[in-house]
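Page 42, continued from yesterday. The earlier attempt failed because a stray header line got pasted into the input along with the sequence. Redoing it now with the clean sequence only.
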Amino acid sequence: MTSIQRHAQIIDLTEARGFISVKELADRCQVSEVTIRRDLEQLDRQGRLHRTYGGASAVRPPAEPLPELRSAAAPAAGGSLVDRVDVLVATPVDPTFDRALLDRAVTRGIPVIAESAIVAGAYTLVAVDNFLAGMALGRWAGSHATQREKPVRVLDLGYHLDNTRARSQGFIAGLREILPTAKIVLSINTQSTRQSAYQLTGDVLDVHGEINMIFAINDATAWGAWLACEERGISPDAMTLLTFGLEGDTLRSALASGSYCSAGLAMFPEIVGPVCVEAAVAAFQGRSLPAQLVTPHAVLTPETLSQYYTQTAAGWQFNWEMALEQLHIPMNIDHRTVRSAGAPPRRIGFVVPFSEHEWYRSLARCMQSHAAHLGIDLEIVDAEQNLKEDVAQREREIAHVAAEQVAPGDVILIDGGGAITTYLAEELACLENVTVITNALPVLQALHNCPGVTLLATGGLLRRGHDTFSGPTAEQALRDLRADKLFLTATGVTPDFGLSHGNLSEVATKQAMIRAAREVILLADHTKFGQEAVAQIAPLSAVSRLITDNALPPSTRLELSKSGIEVIIART
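This time it went through. Structure tokens are written below.
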């Protein structure tokens, strides 16, 4: 049987059964369990099935988007997320995005609740004490290791954020408190993804066979490490895997099996979600909150897991009675008690940075349930999508300001720079006595019915999949033309490399436009700064004016002004 035939049989069996174990697949396909595990990992990456603990389940397309990742806002609401909500719950991941989001929220008077890690200016932070929780798990690991009487050699699967670094630091401190001789063989950044953790763990284990303990800063990295150990046939007796999270069904089931996963630090999304909602309500009502609402944690083992979770046909169910009795919960989240007086927010926004993580999927479900009980809409959006929305709105504002730089009688060049120059063309549609020279097809389409605008196309090669004309024909046309102003775009802007662009075929045309213009006006939102693309367009000295948004740091704006560039800020 070829691998293609085997993959087809695996898909047929999972779809017929819903779930099937690795062992049964190996028996049916007459190959080893290691081969089946590799097959399942490959099919999972292709999206053809779901790799789960001990086997695989079928992919069944949902009738509608998953409720925890579906926007509650009607399409007509439009605008940025902060224009649609009364309070934001956000997790910091990218400093540029975080600053832009917070700036927009502050401008509109929207309080921000930070989840997991600190956001500058947030009303409060809802999170476990990562260092103390990591230390508790480290102490448990040290006590557990002393019973085995073997030298402990640790692989630390970390991440670059402050909260995840605190988890690793706490774990190491707790481990060495009990077992001073424990050696950290390697600490590596797994990018907080299962695939990266799987690949890196495998590489490390191939080089450092002495490793017998793995600490993972979340369940995604723990599961990747599990698969790497399993693929190499490492005995569960020879490896201790410890996870920080126990975020959903996958690692809870793994812990219950008592295989590689010997213990896990439970962060309880069932508690954190409602606390985030209650904190948002308090912030909206102007009630005082501490700088951090510390949520509870507990080290759970195969023997103690059932204290807080019970496995049912519908998944792992949380034991609320035990939680309310044994854990310190920083806010009142009990539905049975009297709620605070005052009007609640109409809608809370929740920005999810890692939608593939079980933590955020579990957290979203718990927040949604608690918000619904309080009569509050919860709009949950992916951070990447929210960033796109935010940048699009900032580009529209930049284009609006750019249009104000155009006077009657001007001859202007408009670069083929994606959405921002299309927005500029739309802003120019009502002007009179303006000549526009462009190599951008969307600009031509936006202005072709405007009687007050004289249009001139550069001509050239229109490449498939691109909306710009380029090549020798366009460059020759630009040699014979002169314009008062060029509105130019770039993929990246840095002091050393200047303006750069990722599409090599367009670079020469942009350079020809610079030579044809008396003044170069750069249109660039804050995300373009600090980036370098493959090819340089021109040094920064070629730019006369920059139109950007207010998320560009003041220090950067000052340096640009000192270099002789007039900086114009589009207020968003």
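Notes: The chain has a mean pLDDT of 88.
Reminder to self: strip header lines before submitting.
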